[in-house]
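Need a sequence for this fold. Nothing fancy.
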């Protein structure tokens, strides 16, 4: 009986020991599994930290690159604005230069026009005359309008001396005769009127000149000379108003 109990107890002990050993083995495997899992987690954490660190560095580098790009963009914008400002200033300078060139051109043209011959018309006669020539002729005639016959006669004589071939000279001789008549210089007036008629017999004022000669002769009490001049007037210019006046003057001489 006792040996059987002893055997049973031994078997139970062996079974317990085997179970304990089996438990120990299982604990070791679990520990190894945990350690291995921990190692794997640690490795994953390391890789994650490395990747995170690398990503942070890349982001930082990207931020620096973006900042550099923004700085370059701002510098480019500033340069572009400066260039636009320079272009606008250049455009203004060019426009101002063109305006000045136009003003200078117009000024030169105006000055040239003062010296270029111009077409003028006097007593129905058209011809070319220098601006200065026309100015002096007008100035020579002007005093006569105010009754200053002496100044006009002097200016007309100076004009014809300065411009001996001027297209104004026929009219200048006629008005010189009138100025001399106004000064009561009848002989000089007759000479001027005769010169005028001889040089321009077809001039529209030629009949007036003959009538003026007759008036000068009458002022000098030369009635015979006046009659001859009036007869010449009626014969040469029969349809003129001066001829009609001459006929009436001859009738008064009888």
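Here you go.
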């Amino acid at each position: 009986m006792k040996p059987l109990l002893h055997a049973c107890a031994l078997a139970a002990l062996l079974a317990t020991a085997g179970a304990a050993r089996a438990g120990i083995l299982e604990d070791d495997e679990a520990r190894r599994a945990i350690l291995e899992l921990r190692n794997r987690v640690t490795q994953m954490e390391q890789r994650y930290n490395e990747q995170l660190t690398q990503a942070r560095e890349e982001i930082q580098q990207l931020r620096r690159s973006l900042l550099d790009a923004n700085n370059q963009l701002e510098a480019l914008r500033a340069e572009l604005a400066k260039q636009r400002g320079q272009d606008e200033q250049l455009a203004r300078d060019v426009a101002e230069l063109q305006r000045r060139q136009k003003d200078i051109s117009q000024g030169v043209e105006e000055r040239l026009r003062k010296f270029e011959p111009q077409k003028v018309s006097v007593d129905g006669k058209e011809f070319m005359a220098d601006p200065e020539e026309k100015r002096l002729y007008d100035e020579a005639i002007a005093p006569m309008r105010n009754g200053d016959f002496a100044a006009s006669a002097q200016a007309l004589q100076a004009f014809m001396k300065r411009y001996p071939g001027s297209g104004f000279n026929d009219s200048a001789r006629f008005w010189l005769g009138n100025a001399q008549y106004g000064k009561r210089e009848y002989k000089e007036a007759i000479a001027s009127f005769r010169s005028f008629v001889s040089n321009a017999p077809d001039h529209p004022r030629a009949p007036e000149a003959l009538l003026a000669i007759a008036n000068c002769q009458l002022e000098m009490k030369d009635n015979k000379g006046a009659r001859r001049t009036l007869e010449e007037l009626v014969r040469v210019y029969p349809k003129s108003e001066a001829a009609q006046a001459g006929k009436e003057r001859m009738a008064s001489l009888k």
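For context: The domain at 118-253 is CATH 1.25.40.10 (Serine Threonine Protein Phosphatase 5, Tetratricopeptide repeat).
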